[in-house]
Fold:
Amino acid sequence: CGELRSAHVGQEVTLCGWIQYQRQGLFLVLRDFQGLTQIIIPQDEAHSHVKKVLYDAPVESVVRVTGTVTSRPPGQKNPRMPTGDIEVKVKTAEVLNSCKKLPFEIKDFIKKSEALRMQYRYLDLRSFQMQHNLRLRSQMVMKMREYLCNLHGKRNISSEYLGAKEFVVPSREPGRFYCLPQSPQQFKQLLMVGGLDRYFQVARCYRDEGSKPDRQPEFTQIDIEMSFVDQAGIQRLIEGLLQYSWPNERGPITTPFPSMSYAEALAEYGTDKPDTRFGIKIIDVSDVFRSVEIGFVQNAVNKPQGTVKAICIPQGAVSGVCLVLGNMRLETANLLESRGLVLRDPTAFHFLWVVDFPLFLHKEENPAELESAHHPFTAPHPSDTSLLYSEPAKVRSQHYDLVLNGSEIGGGSIRIHNAEQQRFVLETVLKEDPELLSHLLEALKCGAPPHGGIALGLDRLICLVAGAPSIRDVIAFPKSFKGRDLMSNAPDYITPEELEPYHIQVAWPAAEAEANKN
Amino acid sequence: CGELRSAHVGQEVTLCGWIQYQRQGLFLVLRDFQGLTQIIIPQDEAHSHVKKVLYDAPVESVVRVTGTVTSRPPGQKNPRMPTGDIEVKVKTAEVLNSCKKLPFEIKDFIKKSEALRMQYRYLDLRSFQMQHNLRLRSQMVMKMREYLCNLHGKRNISSEYLGAKEFVVPSREPGRFYCLPQSPQQFKQLLMVGGLDRYFQVARCYRDEGSKPDRQPEFTQIDIEMSFVDQAGIQRLIEGLLQYSWPNERGPITTPFPSMSYAEALAEYGTDKPDTRFGIKIIDVSDVFRSVEIGFVQNAVNKPQGTVKAICIPQGAVSGVCLVLGNMRLETANLLESRGLVLRDPTAFHFLWVVDFPLFLHKEENPAELESAHHPFTAPHPSDTSLLYSEPAKVRSQHYDLVLNGSEIGGGSIRIHNAEQQRFVLETVLKEDPELLSHLLEALKCGAPPHGGIALGLDRLICLVAGAPSIRDVIAFPKSFKGRDLMSNAPDYITPEELEPYHIQVAWPAAEAEANKN
Structure:
């Protein structure tokens, strides 16, 4: 419906689509995935049947029409419509499927509640914006595949999903469960041990986090792993990948992307994912305040490692410690933008590598113990390897994050490929039972090549490129905040008989068991 | 390692790979995903360190060497090796990871048990055959994506997995379960209602069948759905897709593929997936036998619809009823081939469309009731639509199967797009509760376009193209017969505490509960 132009005038055409709009049996606008076309309904007696069919068909019914492409009369052309120079004079019309009254109109400007959109997702998908987002996603992913598969000889290998961690899936063996993994991390490392030295996958991953806004229990990542590669090698590959797949209409992106250490990011922006589209950096003003006689400031500066920092806000001023300042910086940006100052250009795309993360963090609940900052397979920074055995808390890692306009869109690392080092990290530093990962430790002993990789969060990336307000706008069938599919009503109750082959039964919380009894 | 040729002679190179073979400190063969290269170890005193490093490194260790590409001396060239004209004289060598003694050697000719291969899948993947299979799979899938996405404007849209049927996944809401779907069937139909008129996805699907040989609990399909399309349109698309993605080394395939009705297939081959690479068809010899005075033959022929059929076997003869004859035909082929007669050319690829399936089948346990031959969304054959309301058992469907060399590699149908017809099939013919599919029935009322689709079983297809004995040879990390991952030991026991957030507990069978108690 969106492809006819002046060049087609005089041609006989058949169009199938949805009735977007119909006016008093005079004309209608037909819509399909390609766009809109204006249809002129014949008014003569010979075509009274055609007129009746189209007049009676409710809006959003599916029709097939045949007719002749004609030029619109002078003054009636619509330059804002790609097919605005032509219209189709109908000869025959057939209703392929009639439409009942819809719960909402298919018009982008009509506000619908999130719950209604999710319940009738198949109608929501008819909106111009959703169709645009999903088309953009399909095209960009295809370009990524071309870049990785054709230009870089990566092997697209599916890892298997029923395996690792998180969501549990009961099996037919009593007491045994599969799990839906958060990522194919272990499998991709084992592929490297298997000598499949360049792997990528557009991988479906699962994360059971309960209800977090703008997160999905299932999500998609571009997952990459390579052997015989270093951090710079992976960074250059990703820059090339994004440059190659970037949509033309968003303008070119410049590579290499700038890089910043974790320590710098925290000091200057109060976050490990700085939005570098605007300044308002954090400035260390301790020296200025050291000589000032304000009690609480003096107290702060005179403590060991005590500092006073400030951010410089156009037409304003604040001071405090770094994470709070980081949040304040973003709040300030919101405030200033609400007053009409444009700080964050929505057409600008600022990529940033954040590097040199700490390998371990002190546990919040017990600061004497360490936990992995990312995951236990991350390799230590080459300059800090010896510290691993003496002062592990000071070791930097070979982890890298990719940040776009203040959102983390990817992360990866060079992995540990030495079994002894991996066992030391698991057993001695993290106090975990290495037997749980015995197959991985075993694999590292079998000639595991040095390797590393990265995963890009596809949903978030496409969301930013499309300028969509939520990742739910770039996913065809997303789940609600609470992980519910409001259309098919999943998750749903099932009968004890259906659970029987899996050897499980529901452990009802006391209150509900009581309610069920009554 | 597989890329160096005579043209590179004189160049300095760095190679990383696995030691495939090492001989008395004189030379070794280095292997990576690209192939093999012969490495000459220097024997002079100045390089004694290099010699020691390479001499001490166990087979399958990972090494990095630098050296000069040289021509092999006359008489020592190996024409069977792509790099057989050259060798690399090493200057420096470094062991990147040493390898322990492996549970089996990485040589294709060494027989390993299936269980051992699965337990050490990362070693099994190093074999030439597995690397070849996975490379073939990656390349063929990429060609398919190019064909669908670039040449045919299909949108690659991910449907979401936590939704429909089969494997159950407990959620954090007491008593509510997600399911892992067997296929994205409903979602792709809803995409059509959503106006995304050309969809494809390389979809991961799940099937919980317990233990069936050569089936996997998770499998991959090329999933396609289109609006405003008929059976022929989908068949031509699939033929083009296979032709475009077919590997050069398997020779060209001819389109259109031949087509055969379900009735013909059953009558002539005794199966709905005939291997048409060889004859031995079933012949109806009832007329010959009608006048023959053999009691049991007379009994058979004189019953209503009674027939006597036979197959003609070179150097042999049998007779019987059709499904048995179909099996006998394959058994006969096995027997004749074991005696040296080649009936089924392993280099021939015979595609066949099987069409005009019955829409419903009589239930085995209760022949008075009907069940869907495929699924309840399949549309009736246009010539049989009126029969649907009078004699549903006689209605043919718009389902089509694609058969390759006697294996079903795909199937699809034109779907019902009329809500009334869909409700009639569910409620009146199949006696199912239409409320369970109320969201789909609701969607069909909202201007659902005529639509249809198909799914190709990717694992089976690649298996046939690769000539692999099992689909496990074209999947990186398959599960065993019993659905076990022998490497990571999934499915595995988990603690009651881990089950708590999901409000389930294990219902141990009596015997095991007793054993646990003691």
Summary: The longest strand of chain B covers residues 12-23. Confidence is low (pLDDT under 50) at residues 160-165, 315-320 of chain B. Chain B touches chain A through 117 residues (CB under 8 Å).
